[in-house]
Amino acid sequence: MLTGLSRIEAKCMEKGLKMTGQRRVVAKVISESHDHPDVELLYQRAVVVDPHISIATVYRTVKLFEEAGITQRHDFGDGRARYEEASDHHDHLVDLKTGKVIEFTSEEIERLQKEIAKKLGYKLVDHRLELYAVPLEGPTAKGHN
């Protein structure tokens, strides 16, 4: 069974969501994910903890967490909705060769986005930035001089 309180479970309790055993399993699986899993992958991980959990329960739970602002859904162009715990703002770079999603922050990008919005007569209140890239080849590649 589950021990300790996952970060997502704590957020659910703060928001007053009823936490069933299976919701706790999904909360724990998402909290422990260091990637951006889709529902299928979340289900595969959850069923290891609770063999009786259904994929429909995982779908419903993920939707509930998303609607409560506890998780965020992303579409990285691969046809699958992928999820992560809602956290401090960050952007994503998607490696088109491997599908790996790299999280990053850039004060320069944040400043430029605000500046662009202001020049166009707006105050930026939110944004999402996803970069799609392939690894550099040859001498300019990361780690090469």
Write the layout of secondary structure elements.
Elements: H1 7-14, H2 21-32, H3 39-49, H4 55-67, E1 71-75, E2 81-85, E3 91-95, E4 101-104, H5 107-119, E5 130-133
Parallel strand pairs: 3-5
Antiparallel strand pairs: 1-2, 3-4
Task: Describe the structure in your own words.
The chain is α+β, with helices and mostly antiparallel strands and 145 residues long. It has helices spanning 7-14, 21-32, 39-49, 55-67, 107-119, and strands spanning 71-75, 81-85, 91-95, 101-104, 130-133. Strands 4-3-5 form a three-stranded mixed sheet, with no helix packed on it. A two-stranded antiparallel sheet has the order 1-2. The model has no long low-confidence stretch (mean pLDDT 83).
Using brief descriptors, characterize the structure shown:
145 residues; alpha+beta; 5 strands; 16% strand; 3-stranded mixed beta sheet; globular
